[in-house]
TrEMBL record:
SUPFAM superfamilies: Phosphoglucomutase, C-terminal domain, Phosphoglucomutase, first 3 domains. It comes from Nonomuraea jiangxiensis. Keywords: Isomerase, Magnesium, Metal-binding, Phosphoprotein. This is Phosphomannomutase. Residues 6-130, 153-251, 259-365 form the Alpha-D-phosphohexomutase alpha/beta/alpha domain. The keyword Isomerase applies. GO terms for molecular function: intramolecular phosphotransferase activity; metal ion binding. Pfam families: PGM_PMM_I, PGM_PMM_II, PGM_PMM_III, PGM_PMM_IV. Residues 370-441 form the Alpha-D-phosphohexomutase C-terminal domain. Its cofactor is Mg(2+). PANTHER family: PHOSPHOMANNOMUTASE.
């Protein structure tokens, strides 16, 4: 039996298969999901991991035992599952462990309309009910309908971003053996895009590199191929293809903050005066650019649950995170790496400049990127940093400690899962950014010694 207490996280289910997550556990979760959601029908999709099919089938058995019908979408990306939930009006479950190693798997759950389910919005109840149902067998009563949702997903995205009229583009896509290899060909079909695919073979063992574009070493093959092939840009997707990282024609990474600002400008052209959400470690340039284009920037904590909650509260048209997650009101407030990529392709293809020149206007500051430090006494480290910067800037503690001075800021916050402090620093001047970053790291380092 799996370990329910360990695998149910704040916003999803994730664990090692079969030690922490096994088929009897998945079956119990399926039954509990239907009960807690009060669902007559649910939609299920899964990624390419070897364990995904048996786990999804076990979940379906549990759902059927509670008299629910199941729309089985089969292989899909996480944003395809959100499309299914939104377009069909059904609660849904995606079997994936995103960018985690092959031995992991998990479930991302949502209510009808792709509304996320977290610990405070139903996930705890599902966990507790599943614990009561593990090992309880019941006769399947509901029916299963297998439905290929990929064509509808691709067509829906193409209605949100017009790409048929752009200039021809050469694009390299690294799917990392993940679900981008399944969805990208369908979305790009018939568009003026010359596609060079890297690692499109679906393989949950990730034989080429981890499907995690946030780690620079996983981008090396893409960067080299973009330069060698003379491509206009490169795109890297994570394992379940809900995150997208952009590489310019020089093989350089484009900051997710710049992508957030670029997409925000495009959405504000469509919805003048709208609200744009950004988390507190995106660049200062994001709210500046949003205001300059008549929008209303709203700052949130780091994490998709906070982004989605603020989008729902404010009616925001778009939200961006520095982790390369991008959220769209037109996509049921859910995140879609593919939709963000399409906005970048449209913006690039509607004019003649190379990507590096086009995004320069959205990159106004020098950033440290996220720097992690292993610290056993995180509270003491934060206390010492507060003390060192007292009187030197404005403090806020929305998420960790943010200090904002004249032309610079930094945020130091604890990891939710590891004994780490995460630092992000930014300044108008590269030397100032380096000085602030190094000063904070020196203080933190003294605590960890």
């Amino acid at each position: 039996m799996g370990d329910l207490a360990k695998i149910f996280k704040a916003y999803d289910v994730r664990g090692v298969v079969p030690d922490e997550l096994d088929e009897p556990t998945a079956e119990a979760v399926g039954a509990a999901f239907v009960e807690i959601m009060g669902a007559e029908s649910v939609v299920v999709a899964h990624d390419m991991r070897e364990s995904s099919v048996p786990l999804a089938e076990a979940f379906i058995r549990g759902a059927l035992s509670r008299r629910a019908d199941v729309v089985h979408a089969g292989l899909g990306s996480t944003d395809l599952l959100y499309y299914a939930s939104g377009s069909l009006g059904l609660p849904g479950v995606m079997f994936t462990a995103s960018h985690n190693p092959a031995r992991y798997n998990g479930m991302k759950m949502c209510r009808s309309g792709a509304v996320p389910i977290g610990g405070e919005t139903g996930l705890t109840e599902i966990r507790d009910r599943a614990a009561e149902l593990v090992g309880v067998t019941a006769t399947p009563v509901g029916s299963v309908i297998e439905k290929d949702l990929l064509p509808g997903y691709a067509e829906h995205l193409r209605t949100l971003v017009e790409l048929r009229g752009i200039r021809p583009l050469k694009v390299v896509v690294d799917a990392g053996n993940g679900m981008g290899g399944h969805t990208v060909p369908a979305v790009f079909e018939g568009l003026p895009i010359e596609l060079t695919p890297l690692y499109f073979e679906l393989d949950g063992d990730f034989p080429n590199h981890e499907a995690n574009p946030l780690e620079p070493h996983n981008l090396v093959d893409l960067q080299r191929t973009v330069v060698e092939s003379g491509a206009d840009l490169g795109l890297a997707f994570d394992g379940d293809a809900d995150r997208c990282w952009v590489i310019d024609e020089r093989g350089e990474s484009v900051s997710p903050s710049a992508i957030t600002a670029l997409v925000a400008v495009r959405e504000l052209a469509k919805y003048p005066g709208a609200t744009i959400i950004h988390n507190l470690i995106t660049s200062l340039g994001v709210p500046e650019i949003v205001r300059e284009h008549g929008g209303v920037p709203v700052r949130t904590r780091v994490g998709h649950s906070f982004i989605k909650a603020e989008m729902a509260r404010t009616g925001a048209v778009f939200g961006g995170e520095h982790s390369a997650h991008y959220y769209f009101r037109d996509f049921w407030f859910a995140d879609s790496g593919m939709l963000a990529a399409m906005h970048v392709l449209a913006a690039l293809g509607e004019q003649d400049r190379p990507l590096s020149e086009m995004v320069a206007a959205y990159s106004r500051y020098h950033s440290s990127g996220e720097v992690n430090s292993a610290v056993s006494d995180q509270g003491e480290a934060l206390r010492r940093v507060r003390e060192a910067f007292a009187g030197r800037g404005d403090f806020d503690e929305l998420d960790g400690l943010t200090v904002t001075g004249s032309g610079w800021w930094f945020n130091l916050r604890t990891s939710n899962t590891e004994p780490l402090l995460r630092l992000n620093a930014e300044a108008a001047d590269a030397g100032m950014m380096s000085a602030i970053r190094d000063e904070v790291l020196a203080i933190v380092g003294k605590v960890s010694e």
